[in-house]
Amino acid sequence: MRCRLNIFMGLKRLLPSSKIIKNSRQKFVVSAKVGIQVPGAREKVQNLDSGVRRNDLRKNSVSVFSVQDKLSATFLFLLVFCLTLARAEFGVAQGLEKVRIGMPSLSLSFIAPQVAYARGFFREEGIDAEIIRIATNVGLVAVTTKEIGYTTAVGAGLRGAVKGLPLKVVTYFNGRPLHVLVARPELKSLADLRRKIIGFAGYGDSTEFMLRAILRQAGMELEKDVQAFQVSGSGQRLQALLSGKMDAAIVPPPFNFEAESKGFIRLMAAADVFETSVSGLALHVDTLKDKPAQVKKMLRALLKAQNFIKNNKAESVRVIADWLKLEPKISQASYDIYVKGMSLNGIVPERVLESDIERARKDQQVKEAVPVSKIVDFSMLREALNELGMR
After folding, report:
1. How far apart (Å, rounded) are the C-alpha atoms in residues 157 and 168?
2. Among candidates 268, 252, 280, which has minimal Cα distance to 356?
3. For 115, left (φ over 0), alpha (ψ -120 to 50), or beta?
4. 88, 215, 238, 279: which could join 220 in a potential S-S bond, CB 3.0 to 4.6 Å?
């Protein structure tokens, strides 16, 4: 805690109107009240420990340092008070475990960590969470090198683990992706996208695979039939679409609602053709092994956040509006679509995981079969669910 003690700097100005006059021969104390000069050599000094100097030759003596004494006492009181508060605050901070969480963009897909932060669920679990906005691929590297502890980009984390990175997924926020492909008003169908510019977050990001799955519905392939435009942030991707730099883009709520409110049309929802989740929590395998207590605290906080979102619409809508800077109407629509697809217990069915891993294996040309147990571990999540009385 910072405590400004400007009163200490003003002591000289607040002294009574007495001053010390010096010359080469003697020192006099001049009282502005009585106008009498008293030779300093004849002055008796009493109560030295208290710092009070008295003129005993006259009855109406002046206490030169009385105001200074009071201000000094005030200063000491404020100093002790500030140090006590700072120590208490430092003690609380010392009891929290610092954790860095990577998040690829500000979007509804990742609202759970933000709610956990805003509502104090991380701190309840003894976690001092720092949420860092970081591009998906950079975030994976940061987790792999242990620069950060976790990433919410579990779709990319899963594919990285399939390819051999030391990563594991420990929970999911949604059962299906929330993303939607939106396009300019004159583009009425998927077929109209041929040779057009389409935006997505980047190669290796979940939006790449969503877009590929959507294009296949019209017999098209990314790069061969349409032009790829990489823009990592969902908000920036929306702005590029609105400014005419691209013809269509795949974006999550609330950005699809913003586009549609400005006349853009929804061509297809990723959930219609892509059964997987792109948001949750992934970590380094060493973190799961070496810091199981921390992992469980993180999962407990996120489960509390998901439960809060489910049961507190008004407050959740406010958090969404404040965090994403949205109008109330769009915030409410975003909330509704999130709750509809959320995974309250963080678990995704085995068949969905198998399908997702197999697709990632084929896309990345990994020859060996990859078991689910190598990529996903819900054991700590199940313990957290039991402790919280959730199923």
Report:
1. 7
2. 280
3. alpha
4. 215
Question: By mean pLDDT, which of 7-16, 108-117, 161-170 is the weakest?
Answer: 7-16
The answer to whether 277 touches 345, Cβ cutoff 8 Å, is no
Q: Cβ-count burial of 18 within 10 angstroms (0-12 exposed, 13-18 middle, 19+ buried)?
A: middle
Domains and CATH numbers, the chain: 6-91 (no CATH), 97-176+277-388 (3.40.190.10), 180-272 (3.40.190.10)
Which pTM was predicted?
A: 0.68
Residue 11's region, left for phi above 0, alpha for psi from -120 to 50, else beta, is: alpha
Residue 253 CB partners (closer than 8 Å, separation 6+) = 107, 108, 178, 180, 333, 334, 337, 338
Helices in the chain by DSSP H: which ranges? 6-9, 66-94, 111-118, 121-124, 136-144, 154-162, 206-216, 234-242, 255-261, 285-290, 292-311, 313-324, 328-341, 350-363, 372-375, 379-388
Q: How far, in Å, CA of 134 to CA of 151, rounded?
A: 9
- Residue in 204, 168, 141 with CA at minimum distance from that of residue 353: 168
In 3D space, the residue among 110, 202, 94 whose CA is nearest the CA of residue 150 turns out to be 110
**At residue 316, does pLDDT exceed 70?**
yes
Q: Tokens for 218, please give them.
A: 């019209």
Residue 4, pLDDT > 70, answer no
Which structure tokens are listed for 35? 């106008």
Which residues are CB-neighbours of 71 under 8 A, at least 6 positions away?
7, 8, 10, 11, 14
Report whether 200 contacts 136 (CB < 8 A). Answer: no
Question: How sure is the predictor about 164, in pLDDT bands with cuts at 50, 70 and 90?
Answer: very high
Q: Report the chain's mean pLDDT, rounded to a whole number.
A: 81
- Under 8 Å between Cβ of 95 and 49: no
DSSP letter, residue 135: -
Asked if 249 contacts 180 with a C-beta cutoff of 8 angstroms, the reply is no
